[in-house]
Amino acid sequence: MYKTIGVLAHVDAGKTTFSEQLLYHTNSIQARGRVDHQDTFLDNHAIERARGITIFAEQARMQIGDDIYTLIDTPGHIDFSPEMERAIRVMDYAIIIVSAVEGVQGHTETVWQLLRQYHVPTLFFINKIDREGADVDAVMAQLQKDCSDDVLLIDEPLRADIVPSHMKEWLAERDEQLLDAFLADTLENHTCVTRLQTMMKEELAFPCFIGSALKDIGIKEFLIQLPLLTETHYKKEEPFHGEVFKIRHDGQQRLTFMKALQGTLHVRDDFTFGETSEKVTEIRLYNGHRFETTQEVSAGEIFAVKGLSQAKIGDILGNSKSPQPYELVPTLQAKVQYLGQQHIKEVLKIFRLLEAEEPSLRVVWHEKFQEIHVHIMGVIQLEVLSEVLKERFTLTVTFGEPKILYMETIASTVTGYGHFEPLKHYAEVHLRMTPTTRGTGNTFANACHADDLSVGHQRLIEKHLFEREHHGLLTGYPVTDIHFTLLTGSAHIKHTEGGDFREATFRALRQGLEQAENMLLEPYYRFKLKAPNDFIGRMMTDIQQAAGTFDAPLLTEEQVILIGRAPVATFMSYSTVFAAYTNGKGSLSLQFGGYDVCHNTEEIIAQIAYDKNADPAYTSSSIFCAKGKGYSIPWHEAQAAMHCIK
Predict the structure, then answer these.
(1) Which are the contacts of 144, defined by CB distance < 8 A and separation ≥ 6?
(2) Tens digit of pLDDT for each residue in 97-136?
(3) If you placed Cys at 504, which of 334, 416, 418, 535 could pair as Cys (CB 3.0 to 4.6 Å)?
(4) pTM to 2 decimals?
(5) Do 310 and 263 contact (CB within 8 A), yes or no?
């Protein structure tokens, strides 16, 4: 049975040390490394060892009985959380490590929410119980309050034939059939184990263990019980499907890491990407930085292949469905500053290579200014990026001050008209544009009849709408949360050529924006602030001054909890301020809360000073032809000139 187990935690909770112990006790490694000694097995990158943090999600293989586990150690720092999210999507089970001293911290809650969104069965391990200040009871209460009432402490050994009485009682409280048997004293042990497995898969039970990874306390007991609590069922007889979750490079060779969701993959199997076909030339099973090659892999396994240059992170090979979008998105962007001898376009190629490995970078090239911009989660990511560029590519790069990534949308329904008809070209597009629910993104519907426009041209219009982000009118940042409906259009049997519908589609979109009420959006955090009651006044004042909002305060005898939303722009550096005035006694949890109306729209528009009429990529005018010459019609006159208006 193949099982993929992920280890996740807030930074410094002991996640990597815990992973080392699991590998050591399953004889996957011969010696246990330590983060402070810079010799851990999974943090094998020089930058990780130097910084003492996990940056890249790495995997190792271990065997317990007949089961083969792939263990994935994930980053614990928020700047590298997209890497963690990609790993979560291929996990069968997750283990959240929580410090017995610090308890549930900010990133712990982000991890928990992500695991619930992806429905990954979850276990907890309360670590560092040997440390001064450790309080298991307090942490358990915190887990049951902040995560789930169904966190179950397993502090006595669980066996297939021995189930502690308190566990039987816990299960019976949540299952009427078990309750009847429990009261009659006929509840069998194997029934309890089977029910616990099922409840874990249904996210109704979250077993919690305790110990110390550094002192090797509770690790063996955890490993003994792990096979009992986890099970997987994969369909090996079905056609192969595999999800790509990581891309790396071994010298000049591209490695595509994936998880087999069903079926079997063989060396020399091929995949089609658009009009090209590529073969798998090698399959590798990785254990840290070491690997062995194999001729085939089965459903449930994690592996890397060579030979696929077109596969992207998030793709499900063998399945034509569009990949599910990721939850964690960058809210900052930074300009690349390079003063070396290489041409800037060569530097751009290197960034494109890194973008394939880290899609959230979203490398943006500004042709007019010959500039490269990258999307980022935080400043630590920029520091690491600089080190990676220097180490791998001997490229010395710095970055400008990170800036907020804004977006734009519309607040009214309009119909955009675009016509492109210079001499020997022809295309016309009519698009209805409707505002949608915040966070939906751009969507498309087709109401165009095939009698008016061929199906091929209709698909072309849809393709052009989604082939890139489109600039808004206020700041030039991308438009989002718009539902496009293709109403009609026209082509010429002789003069319509490739690219004509791109021009007409972009002009229709832009002409619609000119008519609409445009809105500037900015990213928001969802926050949770906890501090002693003495600080409630300061906390509420700070949130209001940061243009944030909060729910009614949750007060206990000793502390106050404030939950709410605030703009990233005003709250991104608040953790330092908060820690200072609470003397480290408060805790702050931040999660990306989507985009909403900008709190200082006029100020940002003036600051960016975008000229909608000087954007080289867009125009809202249409081109018509008369007497063998093309001429331009401004956007406010375009509708009356359209050929499809009936």
Answers:
(1) 151
(2) 999 998 887 778 889 989 999 999 999 999 999 999 899 9
(3) 418
(4) 0.83
(5) no
